Amino acid sequence: MKKTGFFDKTLTRQLSFCIGGTLFCLLLILGLFLSLRVNKSYNSISNDYLTQTARFYTSSTEQILNEEFTICATLADVCDKISEIPEENRRSYLNEILKETLRTNPNLVDAWTVWEPNALDGLDAEYANTEFHDETGRFIPYWTQVDSKIDCVALTDYENGSWYVDPLKSSKGILIDPNLYEVGGNMIWVCGVAFPVRDNDGNPVGVVGIDMSLEKLSALLKDVKIYDSGYLSLISNTGLTAVDADVSIEGKIYPHFESAEFGTYFKKSREERSINGYVTSDKTLHVIVPLKVGNADEVWYLSLNVPTSEVQRESKIILGVVIAGFAVTLILLCTLSYLFISFVSKALKKGVSALENIAHGDGDLTVRIDVGKDNELGKMYNFFNETMEKLQSSISKVKDESEQMQRSGDVLADNMNDTAAAANEITANIESVSREVKQQAANVRSADKSVQQIDSNVKNLISSIEAQSSCVVESSSAIEQMVANIRSVTNILKSNTATIEELEKSSEDGKTSIATSVEATEKIREQSKTLLEASKIIQNIASQTNLLAMNAAIEAAHAGEAGKGFSVVADEIRKLAEDSNKQGKTITSNLVGVLESIESVARYSLGLQTKFNEIYGLTQKVSQQELTIMHAMQEQSEGGGQVLEAIKEINDITVSVKNGGKEMENAANSVTAEMETLIRLTDEISSSMEEMALGIESINNSINEVNDLTHKNTDSIDSLNAIVSTFKV
After folding, report:
1. Is 665 in the same domain as 548?
2. Do residues 564 and 96 touch, judged by C-beta distance below 8 A?
3. Is the pTM of this model over 0.85?
């Protein structure tokens, strides 16, 4: 007996462990794959959210800082042109400009300027120890704004201050690091911008600067809530913390600015001016974004800081839900698989019990299995029941036949004696029949020769008919192909006729469109000349306006303090005139180019018009030739159709003759075959009669042996009855 293990005992165990193991592996692989994809997708979404958030607040911060930078750049432009103001009015003019700047920009806390000795107006000695000046008399006003109140004092310690020395050496504006500054008795954090002032030769002669309170930026950035506890930090070019959720580090070096891990990302941000990395430290994710403020070389940074646990929290929740879902699915699938396998195994046991009873029990062929479902098991048990019915029927018939054979054996023994007497009479009859059969054989051979001659003549006739039929079929096919080709060509010509008509119409439309285009091009050329004249007039007006602005500036300078406002207006009018003159020259240049292009288009349009006229003439010529060809092909199609009808009639007659010949051939073949069969049978009968005469003697001997076998057959039938009786039917 074959040894079986734990998994080989029952089909339920085998299928349960195979299916359960397979499901577990598949769901485990699928779960891992989906978990990785979910985690990757969520991380991508989180990074996009953090990036967009950082970019949004970077843009808002840049806008505020750029606004301050632009104001200071405008002040620097005014200071660069101070030579246009009379010397005695320059200090008052600049003070008014600084004061007006504070008044129109409430977010600014101060505006100041420092000039090199005697660089402004050469009058430092006259202003020594006066208001807004120190003992040197240099122009050093410091205007402040506190609660809409604007005051001015003289600057101190400016010679060694980086806020003055660094811009003076620079070729452009600089951003000044945040400072804790006292304004109106209050200590506030400010950030400043300073620009160098240059004379007409380009030499630095002073510095102008402004400071802005960080309260607006602080309010903007500190109100941001990223996830639950994420926040934003604003860091200066040198690493000073301008704004942070932790107030204690504001004004100090940012904790990670000089670290080896963060240093790389700050350096890349400064060089590439783009987001450089998602850095993790102290379980916090940092997104570092550089700020671009005007054309300053200094780079400030916005750092978005959020705990990694908050970023990954939703991802972990989704991952847990996915894992739990797969676990529940695995348990349900395994349970359902086990229940289904148990049901199938239970159903199979019915068949096993029935077969076991037939093999080792009382051989009950009346047993049947209940068919509960119309599935594969139900069909198998249905076929089992049908097989048992057939087997029961067969065994029952065998029992009946064995009883019948027993009765027949008894009758057979009685008839064997009568058979011996009949055998002698058969011998006499066989000798008489043998003589008649020999005479019939001679007559049959004579008739066979005549039939073979007829068959040969019929075959020759059939060969001739087949050759004729083949030729007719080939001719018919060729003519049909020719007619089909003619009709195809005719259809193509009809289609071409419509196409040529459309081409002719399109050519005529194109000719008309080209003529219209030529006229429109000529009109545009004339109108462009008019615009060219108008552009020249605009340039002339701009030149006159520029002269008027210069005269107005001179008059405003003569007016002194009363003409300061009008001087600013005159300066703006002069700028407007210069811009108008430049734009007029640009328009004139563009109009000249457009006029040359229009003239080129006009020349090409005339050539294209000539080509369209030639195409239109050729199209009409092709259309006439197309009609001539189409009429000829229609006549060919009609003639081909008539020939095809005649060929079809010949083909029908040939087919009829061919069919008749085949019938004759088949009849001749049938007669020949029958004659050959008759000859063969006659020979066989003759031979058989001779053998029968010789074998009749053997029959008498065999009859005696059969009589003995009859008694043995009776004994075998009794044994068969005993075996069949073991089955219950």
Report:
1. yes
2. yes
3. no
